[in-house]
């Protein structure tokens, strides 16, 4: 063959070699390259590489979507106790708790004996419009049986909630009717209040209970204050016990109502989160009104922001027990599939400079969550002396009062948990749900008679004449809780209180229930006593001059805050019924 012919085929030979090389490379990459992916990829890409290897080479078929769903929570758990993953089916429900409203049928319910029992009907809501009543039992949903041991609050909520304007057909058993009743309900917007009670404790002082910090909390607070002021209110008790938090800006707007201009409310900062500060703007409606704030071990996050700002600025008195100790800020991040995460991006600090986040070990969330039990076992709920303050994290309020970081807000006045009347028998009937079951059944049987009473005081007088304790003891015995006369006698007053409270809740709602409970609540009584004695505003320590000399750095940091630069004993507290 001539050189000319050889030259003519050279491009074809080169092209063929390139194609052959690509095919060989692809073959080796598919069959042998997987073992080296972890080496050639950066560590941040290892997860993607691992999932790719599993999908292509694992011995069995793997549901990759399910694997990712199970892996996400475990990864975030290795960071801190409050970074969490929320699956798509739960995200809307989580958000609706704080958004002020959701779309549903407009009932509050409790699941008992494997059946949905309607506790109350939302006034003006979809269920009321079609004629549903408190006491109804929901038996079918969309012509399918909706009872049984697999019926949970979560399942009921997902089924009864839904898009606004959508229809749901309910089959209802009513005690006064022989046949099943059928209602077709068009779902609508249901308001979700975050202030459960606002009323006058006496002629001078008002009480406001905030259950969480949501989108509408500040507006609800302004309405509550206006109503109480109209009745001559001269001071407030803000109850944040068992308030687990919510939106931080809701808490800061609430604090703003009580602080003078230029007072630091809170600041936050993190590795990728520049320091952010929030100051009172001077527009608050209650800047000089006496204030007492109630907290306990269930008060967390935004509740601690509120209490910490009031305490550090010496604006009011904090009463109760040491708070939960959550000082981490979460950023909501949503994914395209409807799921999301709440990623910790910063720590927040009270005006004195303390971070009240309690210690934790990454990846050991169980120990973190059980901290309240350790506190209980160590006697912290019953004795102030049992609380170990971190003296290495001592800070000072504007007046020079010492406060401490490293684990919650310590109240100015400690009120121990009251366990008077608590016995093993009472704990057993409570833990088995017998008190709630009896209360609901009693309410259901006597609803027509009980409906004659519209005031808590009148209903209570009627109940006190019905000898409910004797009836309940017989009922509990039939439910498998053996009669123990000595323990019953010891628990009699507390048992009566809880029976009356549950029935009042069933008939008159949560605010009337709270009013009744507060009449014998030691913490509320102590707070009211502080207001009546004119002691709500903290005073500087008597040795303040000496402290100023030895704590110049702390005092200087507090002074800069004026310059704007940018109860197990609680087991008997009734839980809020589920709403949908």
Can you offer a commentary on this structure?
Residues 27-41 and 544-573 have low confidence and may be disordered. The protein has 580 residues and is an alpha+beta fold. The protein starts with a helix and ends with a strand. It contains 22 helices and 22 strands. The strands form 5 sheets. Strands 3, 4, 5, 6, 7, 8 and 22 form a 7-stranded antiparallel beta sheet that branches. Helix 9 (248-256) runs parallel beside helix 10 (302-312), helix 14 packs across helix 18 and helix 18 (485-508) crosses helix 19 (510-518).
Helicity, as a percent range: 40-55%
- Number of separate helices: 22
Describe the largest sheet.
Answer: 7 strands, antiparallel
**Helix-and-strand structural type:** alpha+beta
Q: Approximately what portion of the residues adopt beta-strand conformation?
A: 15-25%
